[in-house]
Amino acid sequence: MKTVLSTKILTPSQKELFLNSGLGLVEYDALKIESRDVKIPFNYTNYIFTSKNAVKVFLNQSEGMDKSEFRAYCVGEKTKALLEENGVKVVKMAEYASELGKILIKNHKNEAFIFLCGNKRRDDLPDTLTKNNVQYKELEVYHTHLNPKKFQRDFDSILFFSPSGIRSYLLENSLGTSILFCIGETTANEARKHSKNIIIANKPTVENVLVQAIKEMSFRT
To answer: What's the CATH fold of domain 33-144?
Structure first.
């Protein structure tokens, strides 16, 4: 039986995709997320989120508040869904931070923003905003820690969801001949430093990574 390693613990509905696939699944969290003890200011109208982790900290701190006044600009469908489920209006959603940056300078250049992020955030978005004189404040609301774990075996394929996840895995393991399924171009760029066996998801969602891995690995059995 071919075995797939997920570097993120999957939800029950995500795991269901593996039922009847004939593939073995091993999962662990390559990263640990820790909220920082910082106060988010709620006197802004426009909030930028590039991950669900930042949204969770925002929702924790704004519990009980009327969120209908806030306008969110975010990266990723899951981030958008989490905001909308909690009554926050999402003005724009992009698949990548660089894409969101272009939208903001094109359509919202004269507005002020607060960007809630983690310590591993990429430079694309802040660089774009700074270069184009868009007024924004950046606030680090969570930390991502590498969570290395040694495996005494090889895997036919490994699912990666961020460059940090790859770095974490490589602290204790090697990639060998595993096929690496990456959630997007940024993650794939990190993977290319270590392997040529890379497949990038058609869309940057966890589900898409899973579906592609199942399709590809079932085909190879």
So the answer is: Rossmann fold (3.40.50)
User: Which residues have C-beta within 8 Å of that of residue 103, sequence separation ≥ 6?
Assistant: 73, 92, 94
Q: What is the pTM of this model?
A: 0.88
Q: Tell me the fold of 3-30+148-220.
A: Rossmann fold (3.40.50)
Compute the distance between CA of residue 45 and CA of residue 199 in angstroms, rounded to an integer: 39
Residue 220 has pLDDT above 80, yes or no: no
How far, in whole angstroms, is CA 188 from its chain's centroid?
A: 13
- Contact between residue 196 and residue 174 where contact means Cβ atoms under 8 Å apart: no
Strand partners, 78: none
In this structure, the number of other CB atoms found within 10 A of the CB of residue 178 comes to 18
Distance CA 193, CA 182 (A): 13
In angstroms, rounded to a whole number, what is the distance separating the alpha carbons of residues 189 and 176? 18
